[in-house]
Amino acid sequence: MATGTTEQKQTRASSIYVLLRNEILNGTRLPSTRLNIRDLSETYSSGLSPVREALNRLSSEGLAQQSDNRGFKVQPVSVPELIDLTQARCWVNEIGVRKSIENGGVTWEETILLSSHRLIRTPRFLPHDDTVPNPKWAVAHKAFHQSLISACGSNWMVDTCSRLFDAAERYRNLARVAGVSRSDPRDEHHEIMSTAVDRKADQVVELLNSHFTKTAQLVQTVVGNVGQEAD
User: Fold this and answer.
1) Could you say which of 3.50.50.60, 1.20.120.530, 3.40.50.150, 3.20.20.30 is the CATH number of the domain covering 79-230?
2) 146-184 pLDDT, tens digit each
3) Is residue 111 a contact partner of residue 150, using CB atoms and an 8 Å limit?
4) Residue 168 · residue 215 · CB < 8 Å
5) For the chain, which terminal residue's Cβ has fewer other Cβ atoms within 10 angstroms, N or C?
6) pLDDT in tens, 89-102
7) Residue ranges of the chain with pLDDT lower than 70?
8) CA dihedral 198, 203, 206, 207 (to 10 degrees)
9) Which pLDDT score, from 0 to 100, does residue 223 have?
């Protein structure tokens, strides 16, 4: 019985973690918003322990922040952090893509081509409402970017790129919620794909850096306003 109860708590904590994580990443829960354990327990019809476990996990990922006296809140955002995050993405993805071009074979190329095809064919917004982002596009978008560095030979590198992608998506979604978004980036993604498959390392790095930087520049004003409101 005790083992079953523990497993149920862990399963419930994982479920709450996924729900909260998605809400933070897609901008539903804004930066610096309080994450009250009792309120969340009622929202998710759960005990306190699974909620606390989920929040601790989010805190370890840098998506929530814990204070000894004030509990948990959604991780704040700032323009300096956005700049730092963007630079880190450029640095880490450059190493990952260069190593993948060096190590990757036909399977790697096929993975990029397939993920690019899925991304281009997946609508960015839901068909019944062109203001609501399509969750399937978000999944395809991340899969494409991860495919570029998937042959780098380092699980740590792949995981780091994944976490940096998620952190950047939170910023991008905050801008989207505020009504600021980029034009359709399909042409950029297609050019990145073609250059990677052609194994033109310098060019694909330049395209990726430009891709990351354009988005960061677009959301800076929104992020600055969010940070001021939080203060």
Assistant:
1) 1.20.120.530
2) 999 999 999 999 999 999 999 999 998 888 877 776 666
3) yes
4) yes
5) N
6) 999 999 999 999 99
7) 1-10, 181-185, 224-231
8) -40
9) 79
Same fold, 2-74 and 79-230: no
Instruction: Give the fold, CATH level 3, of 2-74.
Output: Arc Repressor Mutant, subunit A (1.10.10)
> Which residues does 108 contact at the CB level (< 8 Å), separation at least 6?
100, 147, 150, 151
Tell me which amino acid residue 58 is. Answer: L
For residue 102 the two structure tokens come to 């060096």
- In the chain, where the domains are located: 2-74, 79-230
> What dihedral do alpha carbons 125, 131, 133, 134 form, nearest 10°?
-30
- Tokens 């880190």 label which residue? 88
Question: What was the pLDDT predicted at 59?
Answer: 93
Distance of CA 49 to the CA centre of its chain: 26
- 98-102 contacts: CB < 8 A, separation 24 or more? 98/201, 98/205, 99/149, 99/151, 99/152, 99/153, 99/154, 99/157, 100/148, 100/149, 100/150, 100/151, 100/152, 100/196, 101/196, 101/199, 101/201, 101/204
